[in-house]
Amino acid sequence: MIWWLLGILVLAVAPIVPEILRLPMQGAARATTKGTFIRLRRGLTHFRCYGPEDGALVVCVHGLTTPSFVWDSLAPAYAAKGYRVLV
């Protein structure tokens, strides 16, 4: 029984560990990154916009275990159809 609980605990914590161990991004890396950085109350946030400024807005949000580059193929496709895409 204890092995089951330990296994569940490991599976629950596994996605969080890489985030805790990840080093913060420094200025040199930010300078080579596509997109824009904006300082918000809780820190620095990176975003990218695609498509015409007057297009209907589509917002693509990534998750803890899924980085924002998962939208790299979808965002330009929406922009080509006239949408403004925020990633």
Q: How would you sum up this structure, described in words?
A:
With 87 residues, the chain is of the alpha+beta class. The chain has one domain. Helices cover 34% and strands 21% of the residues. Strands 3-5-4 form a three-stranded mixed sheet. A two-stranded antiparallel sheet has the order 1-2. The longest helix is centred in the first third of the chain and has 12 residues, at 2-13. The chain is extended and about 60 Å long.
With strands numbered from the N-terminus, the spatial order across the biggest sheet is 3-5-4
State the distance separating the first and last CA atoms. 43 Å
* Number of DSSP strand runs: 5
Structural class: alpha+beta
Percentage of residues in DSSP E strands:
15-25%
**Treating each run of at least 4 consecutive H or I residues as one helix, how many helices?**
4
Rounded Rg = 18 Å
Low-confidence stretches: none
What's the overall geometry? extended
Chain-averaged pLDDT:
87
Helix content: 25-40%
H/E order of the elements?
A: HHHEEEEHE
Tell me about the biggest sheet? 3 strands, mixed
Number of domains: 1
Keywords summarizing the entry:
single chain, 87 residues, alpha+beta, 3-stranded mixed sheet, two-stranded antiparallel sheet
